[in-house]
Amino acid sequence: MQATGPTAQTHGRIPPVESYLCAVSVSQSVVLRPAGPVQPLDRRVWGLSAVGVGGFALAGLYQLSGDRIGVPCILHATTGLNCPLCGSTRMAAALLRGDLDAAWHFNPVILVLGPLVGVAVGYQVLAWSLESLRLVRLPRLSMSPRVADWLIKGVIALLVVYGVARNLN
């Protein structure tokens, strides 16, 4: 008896087109009421989410205190130069007020990078939370260690270039 259809053996021939219809693996599909172990989140995701929440908490405190409570930049205090992160607290406080123009003035690079990182990290935490509650398993974002290393090096290079450029004035 010979099997037919997408699971048939082709014995050296090119597999039929139907075998390519399922391009997404089972682990990457949405699963309602998942069972089994929950894949833990990477510690870097937890670290980035803590930095984001802490940053906006500090910005809120800075805003509520009338610009009196904040974290001084050690580089700026000792040399008078602005680091690539200088103005981030004031930028986040301006965002909390809804003043996008002032936020752009304080630190445009972090204003662009922050939401991109925030959406990616927020999705990861949401996917993990929904799976931990056994409601739904969403596909997780993942990248190879090599891509992650290049991405981190690229962001660091961007911040260094921005740090130098903002002090040329």
From TrEMBL:
A Pfam short name: DUF2752
Keyword field: Membrane, Transmembrane, Transmembrane helix
Keyword Membrane (UniProt): yes
Protein's name in the database: Uncharacterized protein DUF2752
Regions that span the bilayer: 105-126, 147-165
Superkingdom of this protein's organism: Bacteria
InterPro entries, sorted: DUF2752
Organism: Kribbella rubisoli
